[in-house]
Write a structure and sequence with these properties.
This protein is of the alpha/beta class. The protein folds into two domains: about 130 residues, Rossmann fold (3-Layer(aba) Sandwich), CATH 3.40.50.1970; about 190 residues, Dehydroquinate synthase-like, alpha domain (Up-down Bundle). It has twelve helices and nine strands. It has a five-stranded parallel sheet. Strands 5-6 form a two-stranded antiparallel ribbon.
Length: about 350
Amino acid sequence: MELKLKPNKIAIIADQNVLQLFPYYIDTLGFEAPIHIFSVLPGEQNKSIEEAVYLWQNLMENHFDKRSLIINFGGGMVSDLGGFVASTYQRGIPFINIPTTLLGMIDAAVGGKNAINLNGVKNVVGTVSLPEKVVIDTLFLKTLSPLQILDGFGEMLKYALIGNISLWNEIKGLGTIKSQDIKKEWIDWCVSFKEKIVQEDLYDKGLRHILNFGHTMGHAIEAYFMQKDRDEKKSFHTVSHGHAVALGMVMESYLSYHYGLLSQAAFEEIQTVLLRYYKNVIKNFPASQIKKIVEFCLLDKKNVNGRINITMLESIGKSSPNHFVSEEDCAEAIKQLFV
């Protein structure tokens, strides 16, 4: 790998499962500096302040400094956590992301947003710091389960809905999604689209808000189930990010229609396509707990003065950020999933 910087040592922050699948991958990158490997447990619940402290302490104990390099090797959770650790340790040291999931390739590893969760709230503590490089290698897609592919496919559908009707029309009719169905050109377009937006609005002051489509309500669903898992002492994450965002897009499309921006026909098309892939999530969706999910919407970091803020659609392929919606309308949007 060609880099301008010549690190004195390298820390690999890696998902344990990825290390087992690709134990020698880092060797192929051709680094000459000494390498230290720090593994982290998979799962969104491990994107925590406790895990960040563990990594900071290891960096200190091994004398990493501002001439060192961190490589984040894993899915979106590792990119988020590792980027946060790198951008805060010694006020920031260089880092590279090597995403190993479809979701990581088109979302978490790109754009410079790094974060951890706190008290069950998604990405509430974080930084904005760009990686030196993002390595996209579709080799990793072959190891992903159908659920993991669907996780990333949800974000791909989001990109199509907010900015590329041609991509939407190409991918909306796919049947069962497998790794071999995902075209490299689709990944490249998503990455390019996000990078262009980030170049114009790195610190999320305006244009970048369109990338939030589906995320306010999606994060609320994700946070609800994360808290439920923690309270019930389960070790798995019930609803993944991509699946939660897909449901969030259904609800925020409904709100776009409800508030008069999106046509009924467009909403129904979006709902039909998304629920074709993600309706199984609804089987575990707590209809009796709608109020709690609305409460998580109220905790979202995109809100302003306590008002729930979402990105809406004007049409398929055209988005409109920063619309305030009522708690009552959010509750109604959640109920639409059961109609």
